[in-house]
Amino acid sequence: MNPYLNEEYGNPSSLYSLGQNARRALDQARNKCATVLGSRASEIVFTSGGTESDNSAIMGVAFAQKTTGMHIVTTAIEHHAVLHTAQLLESLGYEITYVEPDKKGLISAKSIVDVIREDTILVSVMLANNEIGTVQPIKQISDMLRQKAMEINHPIYFHTDAVQAPGALSISVDDLGVDLLSLSAHKFHGPKGVGLLYLRRGTPFVPTQAGGAQERERRAGTENVAGIVAMSVALEEAESSRLENSSKCIALRNKLFASLSERIDGVHINGDLHQRLPNNVNVSFEGIESEPLLMALDLNGIYASSGSACSAGSLEPSHVLRAMKFPDVRSRASLRLSLSSKTTEDELEQVINVLAEQVSRIRELM
Ligand code: PLP
After folding, report:
1. CA 308 to centroid of ligand 1, rounded, Å
2. Beta strands in the chain (DSSP E)
3. How far apart are the CA of 306 and the centre of ligand 1, in A?
4. Long-range pairs for 342-348: beta carbons < 8 A, 24 or more residues apart
5. 33 assigned to active site
6. What is the phi-psi region of residue 288: left when phi exceeds 0, alpha when psi lies from -120 to 50, beta otherwise?
7. Is the pTM of this model over 0.85?
8. Share in percent of the chain as helix, strand, coil (round to 5)
């Protein structure tokens, strides 16, 4: 990022050479991201992160396709960036169907296509859930949607929030069969406040951010050049080390699950054990509330979250665990730990020891 914050600080829309250097950096970053996604560079729209990508994907297609239909299908376990956008569209007269997951947090392709109607214009299903890590069958949904679109005689555009996927799952847009895909750099060791939206050529789209002609008139506003350059490098690295890092994380994650079940009574794993992100651990401990546990972990240098980090601070039980029909006591007792390829066996051991100690201490207190 440094050169683009200090020496090469030009505005990529300017014609002078400093600006053109920034333009070239932007072009290179776009090519790098497109290579990882298996897309054309022109199909990449740089944004301020996952929230903006989700908002503009859903509203962009909804507004553009309004005369074809006003029905949208999504799931009850999406990130709030999707759910709150869906609610906003409801207030504008759109109808939204929220498909429920099963008890393991999985969404079946059949449950999606079963609710498609003549006026369905868009489907949005996340690739991997940020709280419980479950991975949804995006390719299968895409294949079934294509058939359904032929029956209703107009396209059904397909968006996936893939914010949690880089470095863990393939994000090849053709393999996934999606028209729109959202990413956020800080989820793959890039900086915060930058992301991208993949927008397949030919997808009808009304920009939700009005102003200049940047990003081929799909997202107005001067681009965050340093952030975008950093994101493209981080994305390349996440992809090139994906298989190696995933297998390392899976081994650590399985060890963590096994040790927790061995050392602590009344531990429940939330979300499917196998169809799951390699780095996601989400468990509930019977007889405790997660808040005091989070504080105790923090004092021991362990940074965890209950429910989703984005809704931390609110005591509402996680909407994801609720949608899985867990009683509120189990949702309130949930703890999410995220691993990375940099997590060591020693750190894991430390976490297990602290958890065993603190869970029994809190149980006694409660
Ligand atoms: N979608 C998912 C699945 C996420 O996990 C997040 C952030 O946690 C977002 C969207 C929002 O991304 P951002 O914080 O970059 O706006």
Report:
1. 10
2. 44-47, 71-75, 95-99, 120-124, 157-161, 180-184, 195-199, 267-269, 280-285, 334-338
3. 16
4. 343/249, 343/252, 345/252, 348/252, 348/255, 348/256, 348/259
5. no
6. beta
7. yes
8. 45, 15, 40
- 310 within ligand 1 shell (Cβ under 6 A): yes
Q: Token digits for 153?
A: 């005689």
User: Of 269, 310, 323, 354, which one is the catalytic site residue?
Assistant: 310
Span from the CA of 159 to the centroid of ligand 1 (angstroms): 15
- Short-list 288, 322, 325, 282, CA closest to 305: 282
Express each pLDDT in 122-169 by its tens digit. 999 999 999 999 999 999 999 999 999 999 999 999 999 999 999 999
Does any ligand 1 atom lie closer than 6 A to the CB of residue 190?
no
Nearest CA to ligand 1 atom 5: 130
Q: φ, ψ for residue 281 (rounded to 5)? A: -125, 120
Residues paired with residue 269 on neighbouring β-strands, in sequence order: 283
